[in-house]
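Reviewers of the previous submission asked for a worked example of the structure-prediction workflow described in the proposal, so we include one complete record here. The input consisted solely of the amino acid sequence. No template or homolog information was supplied to the procedure at any stage.
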Amino acid sequence: HLQRSGKALPNSKTGIRVYPGEDYLTLIMSDPIAGDKGNMLEVNILKVNLNTLEKTPVHSMVAAGESLSVERVSGSNDIIIFSTSPDGEKYRLAKLSL
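From that input alone, the workflow returned the following structure tokens.
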């Protein structure tokens, strides 16, 4: 069972993206939170073992931006995670191997 950030803004939605692996799922959860200089995202990345349902935290961060986007790296099992500002500017947050 997954838990939403305690800092999530009221009336906002948690973004959840799921990427299947051989024996596990990679979950990317993002919650909009208030920041000192505007909207921020709290991003948590977990791997869930499909045999045991054990959740392992992979990465946790707070980033500027209002939305999250994910792109697959061509010819690999890697993804790159970006936050996007209100004016459409993209900021690279992390690169993961699935």
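Strands lie at 15-20, 24-35, 38-49, 55-64, 67-72, 78-84, 90-97. We consider this example representative of the routine output the project will generate in years two and three.
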